[in-house]
Write a structure and sequence with these properties.
The chain has four domains: about 90 residues, Rossmann fold, CATH 3.40.50; about 55 residues, 2-Layer Sandwich (Dna Ligase, domain 1); about 120 residues, D-amino Acid Aminotransferase, Chain A, domain 1, CATH 3.30.470.20; about 100 residues, Phosphoribosylglycinamide synthetase, C-terminal domain (Glycinamide Ribonucleotide Synthetase, Chain A, domain 4), CATH 3.90.600. The strands form six sheets. A five-stranded parallel sheet has the order 3-2-1-4-5. Strands 12-15-18-22-19 form a five-stranded antiparallel sheet. Helix 1 links the parallel strand 1 and strand 2. Helix 6 packs across helix 9 and helix 7 runs antiparallel to helix 8. The chain is of the alpha+beta class. It is globular. The protein contains 13 helices and 22 strands.
Length: about 425
Amino acid sequence: MRILIVGNGGREHALLWKLKLDAPHAEFFATQPNGGMAPLCQGVEIPATDKEALADWATKNKIDLTVVGPEGPLAEGIVDRFQELDLPIFGPTQAAASIESSKAYAKDLMQKASIPTARHRTFSEQTAAEKWVHELGAPIVVKASGLAAGKGAVVCMTVEAALEAIRSMMGDMAFGEAGQEIIIEDFMEGEEISVFAVCDGKDFVLLPPSQDHKRAGEGDTGLNTGGMGAYAPVSIATSEVMEEAATKVIAPTLEALAADGAPFRGLLYAGLMKTEDGLKVVEFNCRFGDPETQVVLPLMKSSLLDLLVAVAQGRSVTNIVVETHSGCAVATVLASGGYPGSYAKGKPIYLPTELDSDDLVLFHAGTAGTADALVTSGGRVLAVTAVAKTFAEAAEASRAGASQIGFEGAFYRADIGWRERGRVDLPPEGETV
């Protein structure tokens, strides 16, 4: 089997790593692979965004399955182009990908289908947006409607902060065209859960729930990033909560997309807030989340490949059972100094040779070069994923691994899963620490 991975970040490294476990004898290819992916596959020097060149290459090289990692190519219609050529590909069509590429579309869809989410309004004119903020007050959330690399949502605790976010997006074009239409919505109190659903257009299979940490600083402070770490599973995502996610969010969303002429085949990511009033949708993504993928896939005991192939070939996932390993996974992201703002590249990376093991995996994101001469090439550089019997053991192993990696300006959060630690590390009732 010949498999092409489109993309070269941490999520794509995790997908490649898992698929190689599922099919060790398959041939793997990846677009412009990073320093960690390169030893595991053959590089294809075509950008992930060049759908025409990739479709031509996949045809000539007889690729059996293409897996798309990032949202950009999906929003640009790479799946539509591959399907025109009868090339099996995992991911939603351009129309279905609108669930992520346009937050305004997603909000309208949820409203029509009575899917729980925050009260909101959409604006394409700055003055009207500012007026509504003055009427609503704070705290409030301002979001760029388009794709903004996971950084387009700003939680504003004051009216002035909200007005500044609006000016930054609509006036200064901080996110380019993505911020020319914005969503302003109520601030929701609660805790987030990331839910992955592998969908065949009608039915779906849920993967283990996880939780991402978007803020750059410990205790969830500082600027929003693409994600500074994650853990799975999440103790608050009980079987009852997951049933609620399935019946009140995922199923009606698939029905609404199908009714809208955009059946969703691929990975639907639901970012959910567990509130006092039940689950509410924070956002939808049309692909695997990053860095959640780096903790969800190491917990998968059954084959991911079987799921992806079924969807890519137009078959149902109804009878596919997902088995998971017991225990927990925690990923700590090492980032470049200055991230999520400006940062330097080309910094030499020190990686202890004994760090990789069966229970500790390094997923590369912003790296380039070889194992002997690895350098930084992005804001998020590496994710150190540890798997252990308990959350506490996995968190400690992940932090310990991160502390042994060095490059100029490196920083990481040492508190990934801090809410979970407070829940699972409490002593039994009647005992003291």
